[in-house]
Each structure stands twice: as C-alpha cells, then as structure tokens.
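Usage

Read records sequentially. Each one opens with the input sequence:
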Amino acid sequence: MDWELLSPLIKIIIVPPPPPCPSPKGLDDWLTGTLDRLTGLLKDHTPSSRPSHHSKPWWSPHLTVLRHEYHKAARLASEQGTMALRETANISRTGYLKAIKVAKNKNWFSFLLSATPQNLWMAKRFASGRAPPCFPSLPRAETPQQMNEALLSHFFPPKAPFCPPPRLRPHSSTPPPTKEEIAHAISKFSSSSAPGPDGILYLTWKRVNAINPSILLQILSLLVSLGYHRA
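and closes with the structure output:
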C-alpha cells in the first residue's frame, strides 16, 4: 500500500454531516456512503495480490515449463480429440505431476536437514498432517446439515422481530468517545487477523486512524450518541 500517496488524501477526508433526526435507513445510507468513500480510496491504492515468499517454495522454472507443456497438450487433445494427442497429453500430465512430487520431496528433505530446535515441532506438524474432522453426536441429528440446524436452534433460538423506531433520537446522558479511547480500542485488534466484510485489515484501520483520527471519531460519536448498531 502506497502510504506516501494515501496519507495526504486521508488527511483531507471530511465526514459529511448526518441527516437530522435520521431514521435507521437514513443512518445506514449515510454510514454506507461514508465508509464506501473511505474503503474505495484504500482499495484503489492497495495491490490486488502480493505473493508470499513462503508460497510454494518448492516451485521452479522447470515446473513452469512442464505446466505450460501439459496445458498446451491438454488443449490440443480437447480440441482435436485424436488418440495420439490424448496419449501425449496423458504422458505430459504424468511427467508434470511426477516432477511436482519430486520437487516437494526434495524441498521437504532440505527442510529436515536444516531443521533447528525452533522449527522442529513445525516439521512434526507438517509430517502428521491435519486431524480428521470430528462431528459431535446429537440426538435426532445424523447429517451435518441436521447437526447445524440442531445447534443453531438450541444456542440461537428465534427471537421476536425487532421493529426499529421511525426516528433516532440522541441520548444526552451518553458521553461521546474520545480519540484516545478509539485508538486504545483499535490497538487491541490483531494486525494479522483476517479482514472483515469490507476486506480492510485492522492494520490498515490503525494507520488510517493515526493519520486522520477525526474520521472514526465523527462516525462513532454519532452511532454512540444515537445508541445505534447496524444489523
């Protein structure tokens, strides 16, 4: 993310004034528009992908060539359908998969030879693999779908429909949050956690709040004063 270019743009963001005495829908529309403007700016200046150097350490240029040859042979066999081309595609596929297996084994043995006391348990976890999934035994629930419905109905029973008020009124007795409280709350979030529905990492929100703390302050102050939490 290009923070040198983003920082001036974030500093000049001004949260638009909310509608007076808003309805729940009006407040949702205001909040959605405000967040879309900010998250759109962040996503426009964020690389779509950045492959990790830990991803497929066993891969090599030779495997890339074999993959291209296999895909080319498979396309020709699919388009023309002759027996000779199908046999060529099968031979190319077998050689490609065998080369992957050899490369993985070579990388694994290299990892074991260079293992240290710090990553010894990691090697054991890789060698053991994942444990098979275990399903609990529930009465009158045999399939995973039935177990899911039984657990949901037990722990999350259906509630009466909630009818929001037509207009939201501020609570005069509720003190607004401060910049320090918001920064302290955000600091508790793990920077490596998976992002939420907006796709923005907590690390990014921490940086945005450090650059322009008035954005989250104005948004959260209004939501707290109205006692409103988006469904």
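Summary fields computed downstream for this record:
- Residues 61-128 form one domain.
- The chain has nine helices and no strands.
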